[in-house]
Design brief:
Helix content is 79%, strand content 0%. It has helices spanning 4-17, 20-27, 31-46. It is globular, with a radius of gyration of 10 Å. The longest helix has 16 residues, at 31-46. The chain is built from three helices and no strands. Helix 1 crosses helix 2 and helix 2 (20-27) crosses helix 3. 10% of the residues are buried. It is an all-alpha fold.
């Protein structure tokens, strides 16, 4: 996923919910997908 606006929205919801399962449910995506997305963001930010 490269749409930075969507990613920021996902992060915003995750921070508001403080729970991957509830955030994923609110975003209508799977919890594993959200977890992997956050892991990819963390990994890419370490490279910079």
């Amino acid at each position: 996923m490269n749409d930075s606006e969507t990613v920021l929205h996902f992060i915003d919801v995750l921070l508001k919910e403080s729970n991957f399962t509830r955030a994923a449910s609110e975003l209508y995506i799977s919890q594993p997908y959200l977890t992997q997305l956050i892991k990819r963001i963390e990994k890419s930010s370490e490279l910079r």
